[in-house]
Amino acid sequence: MRWFFTVNGEECNNPAPIDGVVYTTGVNVHRVSTIDGLCYNLPTGPLTVTLNVGTCADGHAGGDAYTGWNSYSRVILEELDMAD
Origin, by domain of life (predicted)? Predict the structure, then answer.
């Protein structure tokens, strides 16, 4: 199962997609995880950031979107000035 972020409906490609992959077969796995990354050259103004679940690059189908077990989910976004 692939978890990935989109910005305004598009995946980041500079420098790379922001994603994470979990592989399991027939096991009811509940665990916390962290996905982090950078996305350069975003447009100015309001942005819509979405967390998606989908098919992996190798064709493995997306699984269910169960998350954690007795844990809290957070999305933290930070705008950085990369002018230096």
Answer: Eukaryota
Q: How many CA atoms lie within 13 A of 79 on its CB side?
A: 8
Nearest to 67 by CA among 37, 17, 26, 29: 29
Give the predicted TM-score (pTM) of the model.
0.82
Residue 77 backbone dihedrals phi, psi, to 5 degrees: -115, 145
| Spatial contact of 5 and 19, defined as CB atoms under 8 Å apart | yes
* Cβ atoms 55, 61 nearer than 8 A: yes
Beta-carbon neighbour count of residue 37 at 10 Å? Answer: 13
pLDDT(63) > 80: no
Q: Per-residue pLDDT tens for 24-38?
A: 776 677 777 889 999
| C-alpha distances in Å from residue 77, one per residue of 2, 46, 53, 56 | 20, 13, 19, 24
